[in-house]
Amino acid sequence: MIDTWLDKHRSLYTAATRHDFVVSIRDGSVDLSSFKTWLGQDYLFVREFVPFVANVLIRAGKESGETSDMEVVLGGLASLNDEIEWFKSEGSKWGVDFSTVVSQKANQEYSRFLEAMMGSEVEYSVVMTAFWGIEAVYQESFAHCLGDGNKTPAELTGACNRWGNDGFRQYCLCVKNIAERCLENASREALVEAEDVLVRVLEHEVAFWEMSRG
Ligand code: HMH
How far is the C-alpha of 20 from the C-alpha of 120, rounded, in Å? Predict the structure, then answer.
């Protein structure tokens, strides 16, 4: 199901996973002020993402009927704990004081979307599709910066490894499998909603990268 949707929305998926900012990291031409902007905004995003993932965890425990769903999501939540610590050390490395960073419009809109996804009326299959999309865009984007022939600056490989590593790729595949299993049993209405939510995630991700232009 998901691959069919990605084919259908291929140009949007490419826009989200091969944004100029990401390509500039890979080719080494990245403007460091763009990186700092992204870092500050993504720190704020992750703080909003934690309650969303916690909500996914609760729903995985209650609704999935598969014990492994909860374990996969718990793994994601645990890595967000490390991620917040990583952001803090990266913030001091780059001189970005998160206490003064103001959430930009694209970030606020993404937060509002996450909040809407926490409503109990949103089906588990739809939530899982959104969750996969959010994680997969970062995985694909940062893995691209580590691929053959990259000129990624050494001081940015830490960021790229965080989402581009093989463990994170495996985790995204697990989340995708959960979403696919749920979508197989979903109603026609839920399928329409899941596709729409996936498109909106991709649009939010493009808008998020756009903030790095300043
Ligand atoms: C904007 N999307 C954004 N930030 C992140 N840290 C993730 C996704 C994680 O996958």
Answer: 36
Q: Is the pLDDT of residue 66 over 80?
A: no
- State the CATH class of domain 2-213: mainly alpha
Best mutation site among 109, 163, 175, 176 for ligand 1, i.e. most ligand atoms within 8 A of its Cβ? 163
Q: Delimit the domains of the chain by residue range.
A: 2-213
Tally DSSP H helices, then E strands, for the chain. Answer: 10, 0
What is the ipTM score, two decimals?
0.98
Tell me the average pLDDT across 42-55: 98
How far is Cα 171 from Cα 79, in angstroms, rounded to an integer? 11
pTM of the model: 0.97
Q: How far apart are CA 57 and CA 83, in angstroms?
A: 18
